[in-house]
Amino acid sequence: MSATYTIGKSIDTNLPVHVKEAANGLKCNCVCYECNERLQAIQGKNENSREWHYRHDNTNSNCPGNNETALHQLAKLILYQNKFVETKKKKVYYVDANMETVIDKYRSDVSAKYNDQEIHFEVVVHHDLKADKKHHYQSNKINCIKIDLTDPHLLSAQPEQIKYTVIEDKTNKAFIQWNEDTVIAVPDSGNNYLELFLKGLIAFGSIFFIYKSLFSRNTRSGKYRRK
Known about the structure:
The chain is of the alpha+beta class. It contains four helices and twelve strands, in the order βββββαβββββαβαβα.
């Protein structure tokens, strides 16, 4: 029996299409992400997740489908079409999004511009971000946010829920590298001398204040009074 799922790939655009946003039957003009065979959009009257799904047009197909890849592709498209993501730390606005950008020997899911810096998004559905790729972001100080979509319920979720999880859910975002966390100051030599002078002045003032306080206390106690 053929597998059923909610996300197919458009023959016209090569982009993911949720069954709720597709035309009915073969008019959906979609194929399977796993076997690339034609799909039918099965759309019931009640519009719930069980009645609305894709199935292979070939009823003898034993293809298991690839829901993880389909969800991964849809998440990338959602990021590409939007301008911000919510995180626990802050709301991150971005522009000029692109899908699958090459960074040295790696490829990020989505790249964009954030405050004139490069930012990358990595979507995790089944396998976590590999250690060497994570190290590449960190060692090269490239802004990167990981979006966790490993919740199995998302594989058959409604498009609104998937979009909410990708964009607005604050609990599933992690900063792999974020340059605003570390401020590296490189003062010039003049500023170095000024900084040392101010520190010395503060230290001298602190010692003078302590000495004055002790002298005043001893004076009140009669230690330094003439006999």
